[in-house]
């Protein structure tokens, strides 16, 4: 198996338009999940140069709302791998146009499986954490994955 093509994060920018908000003019949680899922898929593809589908999502932590007119900055980083799966840590932040400072609104782990043209899992390069921070994120992703697998039984 080859080395990862890139371990650099992917950053995606989105704008909160009126059709993306609820009656309180805040971003729908499902819309934010879609943005985060797309970012996770991009990060996994950049990492392995493969096509990926989402296999599971760890419990997302919605910390604060985003409002109509805000920008959403979403950063996704592959922090964990298994034979066919990339664990991607995704963080979304809101940027108010009037203050132009970021404020974290949601984070979580997305687990993406590499697939071939027949939708069968295929191997991916492996991520080896080097720094203490990378090792800590690897362990958090592993705990999330273990908890999800335990819940399936």
Itemize the secondary structure elements and their pairings.
Blueprint: E1 10-15, H1 29-48, E2 51-57, E3 61-62, E4 71-81, E5 85-95, E6 102-115, H2 132-152
Antiparallel strand pairs: 1-4, 2-6, 3-6, 4-5, 5-6
Number of helices: 2
Low-confidence stretches are: none
**SSE run:** EHEEEEEH
pLDDT averaged over residues? 95
Radius of gyration: 16 Å
Task: List the main descriptive attributes of the protein structure presented here.
alpha+beta; globular; 6-stranded antiparallel beta sheet; single chain; 6 strands; Thiol Ester Dehydrase, Chain A; 153 residues
Question: What would your notes on this structure say?
Answer:
By secondary structure, the chain is α+β, with helices and mostly antiparallel strands. The chain has a single domain, classed as Roll (Thiol Ester Dehydrase, Chain A), CATH 3.10.129. It is 27% helix and 33% strand. It is built from 2 helices and 6 strands. Strands 1, 2, 3, 4, 5 and 6 form a 6-stranded antiparallel sheet that branches. A hairpin with a 3-residue loop joins β4 and β5. It is globular. It starts with 9 loop residues before the first strand and ends with a helix.
């Amino acid at each position: 198996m080859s080395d990862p093509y890139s371990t650099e994060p992917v950053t995606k920018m989105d704008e909160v338009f009126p059709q993306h908000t609820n009656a309180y003019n805040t971003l729908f949680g499902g819309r934010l999940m879609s943005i985060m899922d797309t970012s996770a898929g991009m990060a996994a593809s950049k990492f392995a140069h493969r096509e990926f589908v989402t296999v599971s999502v760890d419990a997302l932590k919605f910390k604060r709302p985003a409002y109509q007119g805000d920008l959403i900055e979403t950063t996704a980083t592959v922090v964990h791998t298994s034979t066919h799966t990339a664990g991607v840590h995704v963080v979304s932040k809101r940027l108010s146009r009037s203050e132009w400072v970021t404020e974290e609104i949601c984070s979580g782990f997305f687990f993406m499986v590499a697939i071939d043209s027949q939708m069968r899992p295929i191997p991916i390069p492996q991520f080896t954490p080097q720094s203490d921070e990378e090792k800590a994120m690897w362990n958090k992703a592993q705990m999330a994955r273990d908890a999800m697998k335990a819940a399936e039984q």
